[in-house]
Design a protein that fits this description.
Layout (H helix, E strand, L loop, with lengths): L3 H14 L5 H10 L3 H18 L31 H23 L1
Length: about 110
């Protein structure tokens, strides 16, 4: 638990780098790391690498490997342009609230 944040940040950075040679390491952590947040970040990193290497287009015609207009590297793929504000709000706050509930439960 002590190094979970470090491992989480490392997995996110490895996903942003996007090299195929990183995939086995991320898969190993996906199945073997005791911290759920690290495993979830490894899953996101693996999806990002997969999307970066994809050459197909999505249903709405945009490329799945499309670069961010904000010159940032995000650990997860962007939401579709047809997402409503309520849907986006749930995806942003929903997991955070669940994490806080889990954290508070562990503290008690």
């Amino acid at each position: 638990m002590l190094f979970s944040l470090l491992y989480l940040q490392a997995a996110e950075a490895l996903g942003a780098i996007g090299l195929e040679s990183i995939v086995p390491l991320l898969k190993n952590s996906l199945t073997g790391d005791p911290a759920q947040e690290v495993r979830e970040t490894c899953e996101l990193a693996l999806k990002r690498i997969e999307e970066m290497n994809a050459t197909t287009s999505t249903v709405d015609g945009s490329s799945v490997a499309e670069k961010s207009p904000f010159l940032s590297v995000d650990p997860a793929a962007p939401a579709s342009l047809s997402s409503s504000v309520d849907e986006l709000r749930y995806f942003v706050y929903g997991p955070f609230v669940l994490y806080l509930v889990r954290l508070l439960t562990e503290l008690n």
